[in-house]
Every structure is written in structure tokens, then in C-alpha cells.
Amino acid sequence: METSKSTDGSDYTERLARLQQPLWKRVLDVQAPYRWNVRRLFGDREVLDIGCGIGRNLDHLAPNGVGVDHNEHSVQICRDRGLKAFTIEDFKKSEYAQPGRFGGMLAAHLVEHMPRPDAVKILESYLEYLAPGAIVVLICPQERGYATDATHVAFTDLDGLEDVATQLGLSVNKRLSFPFPQAAGKIFTYNEFVLVAQKA
């Protein structure tokens, strides 16, 4: 039975959709700085977005993003919006599941939803699809954002993200607080820890 802590049901997908619907968010284009940041970090690389949800970052990466998510309801919303997204099983059968295909991998708001060893295991399973030198970006919410979601399991700061990257055998290039300095993360829901790493 689904609970408030589940990320695999239709209720979770509906919650994500509700969070993006308010008119003020669309009028003010609140995603503009995040869109700029993701595009700046990846450039024109083809990016595999792990835990793509309903496609916020796939929108930012378009047309170079391919998403994977365990929630079939979220994947369907992505597809309905014309984005390239797959369930885990469907991705493995797709034309995109080719060794070394992607120049980048994004895991935004994924790691905090599970114990760290589980996050490492999931991300490790996609490393084969990355080309040598691929950029890997890991993003987690800061304190205020972490507290707003009952499905969050493990608070993960920059040191935690660096630990994930190290366990994956990646070299760390950059550690950022975005869009504001880290102190803002205690009061601003949408401040993020951003770690940029690279596959050898």
C-alpha cells in the first residue's frame, strides 16, 4: 500500500505536478536560474537524467536529455510532454542503453530519497552508459528544502555528495551552493548543493 513516504505511486507524481502548477511560478519563470545552471554545467552534451521525475530538468536539457525513473506515472507525464523518458526496464531495452553513449549524467534530488549505499548502487548501474570524461552532476536540497518532503530519507550535503562521487570512482571538479550561498539553505527551500564530477 502507498504511504506518504513512497516515491513510486501516482500520488507522488501528482504532488510533483501540483508543485509546478502555480501561476506565479510560471509568470516569474522561477526555473530560469536552474535551467541556466544545468545548461552551463553540461553544455551541448547528451545527458542521462537519473530519477527524472516529471521532467523539470529534462525540459532544461532539451533536446539533449534522456530520463529514467522508477515511477511509471512520472515517466508517462514526461512522455505526454514530448520528453524522452523511460522506466528502468524500458530504458535497458531502448536504443539509448549503449555503452559510452552519454557525455553527461544528472542525478538531481535523487540521493536524499534513500540510504546512501542504495544511491551509490543505483548510480553505479548507469556508469557503463557514460563516455570517458563524461560530466556527472549530483544535486541535493539544503536544510529547508530537505525538511519539506516526507519522502526524503538521508540529508546529503556537499561532503556526502563527494562521498557518493568517490565511491563511484569519479573525480570531483566543483562543489557549489546554488543559487545562493549555503547560509540561505536554512530559510530558502530551493537552495541546492551541487557537486560536479567526472568519469575517468
Automatic annotation (TrEMBL):
It comes from the Bacteria. Pfam families: Methyltransf_23. Gene3D superfamilies: Vaccinia Virus protein VP39 (3.40.50.150). PANTHER family: TRANS-ACONITATE 2-METHYLTRANSFERASE-RELATED. This is Methyltransferase domain-containing protein.
